[in-house]
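anyone else get weird line breaks when pasting these?? whatever heres mine. first is seq + tokens for prot A
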Amino acid sequence: MHTDLSPVIAATAQWLTRSFPTPGGALASALCEAQARQAVTVAARLRYPTAMDAALVGLAGPGGSARLDWVTGADSGQDTAAQAWRTWVDEVVASWAACLLADPALASAAVTALTGNASAEFRRLLTPDASDRHAAALLRHPDLLAPVAALHHSALLARLDPDSTLVP
């Protein structure tokens, strides 16, 4: 992973876990965050595959969570310093991560496209156990994720198509 993507990955994973919180306690929260972080990491590496791409998003910024907040109905209208992390949320990465969390086959294809196999690094994303599924019940619910996933689903499919050229 490009270290330049760390703020994008952290903020986007935080946005997902706040938007689709776990119904459990501290352990469930940690399991939910691990799944979100793995999905966001895969999505970010697909979206920004080179060091130059990562540097450019670091320079220009990813765009923030405003549209995502509006789509999910979480638009709080608060513009405080405590919410500054939201400026590092990447809408496309969040949408692609939502697609991966909702569709195990698509998640497997995405990880395979990155690593060449079903990497153990992404076990919680690819083969969640019962505890993982319970902790991320909302985070993995296809109907709840649908508005976010639909935003950039076709671009993810195009990126994973081995016969396609670079997708904007």
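and prot B, same format (seq, then tokens)
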Amino acid sequence: MKEHIANLEEKARQLRISIVRALHSSQSGHTGGSLSAIDMVTALYFYKMRHNPAEPSWEGRDRFVLSKGHAAPALYAALSEAGYFPKEDMMMLRRLGSHLQGHPDSKATPGVDVCTGSLGQGLSMANGMALGLKLDGRDNRVYALLGDGELQEGQVWEAAMAAAHYKLDNLCAMVDANNLQIDGDVAKVMNVAPITDKFSAFGWHVLDIDGHDLEAIVNALDAAETVKGKPTVIVARTVKGKGVSFFENKASYHGVPPSDEELPRALECLGEQCNL
């Protein structure tokens, strides 16, 4: 198990490098939230989820909804690493005509299950997928990744209520709780705490973990799969910009890519040399 976790940690490091390089190439996009979410995305795509890069629409696949769609670079890095499209496509992030748009597009990008980007809507779509799979008698699971600032949207809580009502135990939500959003501290913009108590009150099974501890993430995903009769939410305590010291815990890097001067420093933080 330790070797497997170490492999996931190395995978996450490589994906962070891919994200930083892609954002620098595009000179556009969301740095902080992509880096905070990548450990969870890594665990999903390289440990937990059933999926097939050779057949993106395979009916037996688990579904993933990136509700915080602005963190698309994290999803694209995982998809490219998994083999859904060539890794060099990452350098076309947000370019005119590229299939890697600023937010996920299921009609353009192999492996993307649903278009997202308007915050607050992803959990509702995940509900629909989970309920549909249950009605069809399938054992596929649905995973949805939300931001903590996104929890300020009322639709999230309508969806949370519905998921518990319909006993969607094939649904696992994950909250990237990095405490920052584009306008600053989540607690100051519109406090969403206590997140765990709120989901529990809505009838969810709640797990509270360190969102950068791959072993904790893996164990939480395994535990979620055993829960019956209710949906599970994993509240992952993360650091915005994780992995690059001068990005960390700074709301100013919510939607700012690395500059030419910052790229070598960022890659050095990630244990990589810069080859422009």
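btw re prot B: The two ends are 37 Å apart (CA to CA). The first strand starts at residue 63 and ends at 66.
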